[in-house]
Amino acid sequence: MKKLGAIVIFSLLFMPLLGPIMAEASTYDVIVVRGDILIDYTVAQAYSQKEKIPILLTDPRTLSGFSKRELMGFYDEGARKVLIIGGRTDAISEEIELEIANIGYEVTRIWDWDRAGTAARVAIDLWKSSRESVIINGSIEESYLIASKFAMKRGIPILITNENSLPASTQDALEKINARKVYVVGPMISDNVVKTLSSKGITVERLGKDINISDIVDLKEEGLNLQIDILSLLGGLIIGALSLLLIFRFKKDNSVPVFVLTEDERKLVQALKNGEDRQEKLPEATNFSRPKVTRLVMDLESKGIIFREKKGKTYKIKLDKPIKDTR
After folding, report:
1. Which segments cross the bilayer (predicted)?
2. pLDDT of residue 136
3. Who contacts 296 (Cβ-Cβ below 8 Å, separation ≥6)?
4. Is the pLDDT of residue 158 over 80?
5. Into how many domains does the chain fold?
6. How far is residue 223's CA from residue 20's CA, in Å, rounded to a whole number?
7. What are the Cα distances from residue 253, in Å, to 58, 256, 262?
């Protein structure tokens, strides 16, 4: 009876928090985008981070040997559904789609006649509903990085505008996902675009002018907070107190206590020679499969423990915070 009582108490405390997370299962296992079109990659990143799905970059016409090996590795690990973002003529060819299907994957393609339309389809098909969105001028590459980081932090889609007019596809996406707030990122987005958004009852904030990225709280956290009742709040206070103790204990050296890492995460971190290595070498160094390494890297990156730097067709992984063994 004591065990049953403990289970009931745990459920009352934490199931309200876990419910929204468990309810959102990813539809796809791998995302494929054209490697030399940064806007497609930027749009895909927000969903990739939200659902913890790896992104595979490819040439427009044929799969490279590296990409094919990665896809076969993912397939061996149980991946079955691939999402291609981009059209057949100006992004990723039909031949690549057939190559992926021949491996055994079920392939879905999201695309439209232009980049704004493709981004709109991504928002509609993958988010379905999002009360916030990021909007950038698709021709200003300098906006991509900050927009991507901001969208990933908020868990929201990226949409595209022209300098002086809001494309019909973007307007349609905002309406269909029921967006009530838009964050405008980067230069060369006129007041006319802002007025169009405002006329639809959408609140507009310019990133860097009205709001700083460091001031933003994750949208997921806000959603969870809305669902906290008295019992879950009590559990949160207990966890918060323990977290504060850990913060005060380790804040001096900014290191990460080793016990917060899973066993697999520790093994991957230990495999980084002198704190860095190429991602393609980590499967052999850890005896993990390529898909598993990709997932671990994404998890550690989201925690701020490592960061990735693009190097050709792979990534260079660097340890961002020292790991402290407190045993």
Report:
1. 230-248
2. 95
3. 264, 265, 268, 288
4. yes
5. 1
6. 8
7. 41, 9, 21
Residue where the block lists tokens 């009352």 = 12
| Residues facing 319 on adjacent strands | 306
The domain of 273 spans 253-327
C-alpha span between 168 and 92 (Å, rounded): 24
CATH number at 273 reads 1.10.10.10
Q: What is the pLDDT of residue 307?
A: 84
Cα distances (Å, whole numbers) of residue 11 to 1, 23, 221, 231, 240: 15, 16, 19, 10, 18
Here the contacts of 219-226 (C-beta below 8 Å, separation 24 or greater) are 219/132, 219/154, 219/155, 219/156, 220/20, 220/155, 223/20, 224/17, 224/20
Cβ-in-10-Å burial (0-12, 13-18, 19+) of 65 comes to exposed
C-alpha pair distances (Å), 14 with each of 7, 21, 231, 234: 10, 12, 9, 10
Q: Quick: pLDDT tens for 257-283.
A: 766 678 888 888 888 877 888 888 899
Q: Is 79 exposed, middle or buried (0-12, 13-18, 19+ CB in 10 A)?
A: buried
How far, in Å, CA of 155 to CA of 149, rounded?
10
